[in-house]
Amino acid sequence: MNDTLGLLEEARQLAGDLGYRVREEPLGELSGGPCTVAGRRQVLLNLEQGAAERLDVLLRVLAADPRVAAEPKSRLLARRLAALGDG
After folding, report:
1. Which of 11, 39, 57, 70 has its CA at a distance of 20 to 30 angstroms from the CA of residue 84?
2. CA pair distance 47, 74, nearest whole angstrom
3. Residue 44: CA atoms inside 13 Å, Cβ hemisphere, count?
4. Domains assigned to the chain
5. pLDDT digits (tens, 9 = 90+) for 11-65
6. Three-state SS for 74?
7. Beta-carbon neighbour count of residue 48 at 10 Å?
8. From CA 1, how far away is CA 23, in angstroms rounded?
9. What is the C-alpha radius of gyration for the chain, rounded to an integer number of angstroms?
């Protein structure tokens, strides 16, 4: 669980560095994902989901952004992002 929470925090920071605003809100049955509001990139995460599910949503958004390759990140986060890019 500590790895998950640490990765979630690191992924939030990375998303912020890339210009995303990460919002955590209760979204009912929706899992969340990327959106644009008033020209600003945002990622919605469902507070009703566990940390692992929120992390998965955020990692999918980051893995789809080609700018993520140039950003510094831990080895663990880099491996998780690479696994999504390969899959």
Report:
1. 39
2. 25
3. 15
4. 2-86 (3.30.2010)
5. 999 999 999 999 999 999 999 999 999 999 999 999 999 999 999 999 999 999 9
6. coil
7. 16
8. 21
9. 12
Q: Tokens at residue 61, please?
A: 């958004």
C-alpha span between 3 and 38 (Å, rounded)? 34
Type of residue numbered 39: G
Please state the pTM of the whole predicted model.
0.91
Report d(CA 9, CA 13) in Å as an integer: 6
Separation between Cα atoms, residue 15 and residue 31, nearest integer Å:
17
Distance CA(3)–CA(52), nearest Å, equals 10
